[in-house]
Amino acid sequence: GMTTVGNCRYRQAIPRGGGGLLDIDTNYGFRKGFLPQGERKYTPRRQPTAQQVLIDTISEGPTTLFLIGVHTNIAVFLMSNLHLKKNVEHIYIMGGGVRSSNPTGCCAANDTTCIPGQCGDHGNMFSAYGTNPNAEFNMFGDPFAAYQVFHSGIPITLVPLDATNTIPITENFFKEFERQQSTYEAQYSFRSLKITRDTWFNDKFYTSFFMWDSFMAGIAVSIMKNGEKYNGDNDFAEMEYMNITKPRFNLLQGGVHSGHVQNGIDDPFCIVNGSTKGKCEDGYTKEVTGPEAVEVLVATKAKPSRDVNSPLEKEYFKHFLEVLNLPQHAGRFNISTQFPYYRETLYLPNFSNKTRGRPVIFDMDMSAGDFLSSFTFLRRL
Description:
The structure is a single chain. With 381 residues, this protein is α/β, with parallel strands linked by helices. The chain contains 13 helices and 6 strands. It has a 6-stranded mixed beta sheet with strand order 1-2-3-6-4-5. Helix 3 (72-80) links the parallel strand 1 (63-67) and strand 2. Helix 2 crosses helix 3 (72-80) and helix 3 (72-80) packs across helix 5 (143-150). The protein starts with 30 loop residues before the first helix and ends with a helix. Residues 19-34 and 250-259 have low confidence and may be disordered.
């Protein structure tokens, strides 16, 4: 059912592409050709589960968690391992939108033909805009789990859309990134970013693609390096304490959920006749007062560059490129050094002294029956 330990809504939050829910290859097809080569192997049936990884790691002592996706795994861990919760010192989260104002989908002042999108709304779920203009993807995927995490009693620092909306990938940053690629990590990251830009769904890449997860990681590391001060002092973002919650479901009448839990992307309950904006707010990180409130340290906006002459507008841009290009942490991607006993060999068949049979053409739609037919034919040759 619609619970954290049941059928969570992660897949419902992924827009269908031409090839279905798994239409998009997030590695753009060059995993084997461009990712680090090494001795690591992936055997799915032998891999430890996410829960086992959490148990093994957190059992060893004080641990800090970075959450950059849906909260299901962490929520299940916290509910199932109460004796280990004391070892979780801090949770840094990228997600939600408290006071956010979506900068995408806005119309120019004199454009009378433009239909506004999510301009000014809290969320970033462009695929669910017609039902929920307030939801943020990571929270919408499993809001039950998010409630468990926020109300766990563990100190939380949140980097919501409030902050990430203030650090878009700008054209200046993109050009500077293109110039600074002295490590394999930088080359891989830029290549991925360039493909994303070139295949973006409209011509608004520089105003609608943001440094979401990496910005959270940068803020978290900076806070820890600065001694984890109470006010979250760091180099990259302004911080503020806020009282927020992920409300209990089916209990608040007239509140965020009005007694209804959104059932999928196209829930008809959420659709407002005569409007392009839906009324549901699942996945919205609400600022509240009272017993349901949790005090959370929240990033509000990115800090500008300290160098007024720099082409990089944000302080984090400069540090991102510096760290990515550190030579002492460069990976080793050379397959000849990783696999010294392998060589590339091209085998060409030699039919000079052989009598070849008649040509055969298979015209099939790749169904199971066609494969069986081709196997039967080939075995009889």
